[in-house]
Amino acid sequence: MSIDTETARRVAKLARIQVPEDDLPELAQEFGAILDFVEQLAEVDVDGVEPMTSVTPQRLKRRDDVVTDGNQQEAVLANAPDAREGFFAVPKVVE
Predict the structure, then answer these.
(1) Using an 8 Å Cβ cutoff, are 1 and 30 in contact?
(2) What average pLDDT does this structure show over 74-89?
(3) C-alpha to C-alpha distance for 49 and 46, rounded to whole angstroms
């Protein structure tokens, strides 16, 4: 797919990337190469192919979803630089 320099300029502007005017033709050519590759991928037949989480088959580790004791407020706040009334205290940043 052919991308012109005007389209490359617009994409760079939308991406908030400052591209020198001299580099726009090269950028347009790179965009075209990327789009050509995407078109090649669209030609691949993926019917019946299961999605994968890894290239090697493996089961994810699972644990029982149970409520734990928690109740560790003192341990959590033990190293806090400033804790008040059972919470982390932070400097006020909004007036």
Answers:
(1) no
(2) 92
(3) 5
Backbone torsions φ then ψ of 44, nearest 5 degrees: -75, 135
Dihedral (CA of 29, 35, 40, 43) sign = negative
Nearest to 27 by CA among 45, 47, 5: 5
User: What would the pLDDT profile of 18-60 be if each residue is shown by its tens digit?
Assistant: 999 999 999 999 999 999 999 999 899 989 988 887 888 888 7
Q: Is the pTM of this model over 0.70?
A: no
On the question of pLDDT at 95 being above 80, the answer is no
The three state secondary structure string of the chain is CCCCHHHHHHHHHHCCCCCCHHHHHHHHHHHHHHHHHHHHHHCCCCCCCCCCCCCCCCCCCCCCCCCCCCCCHHHHHCCCCCEECCEECCCCCCC
Residues 3 and 31: their CA atoms lie apart, in Å, by 7
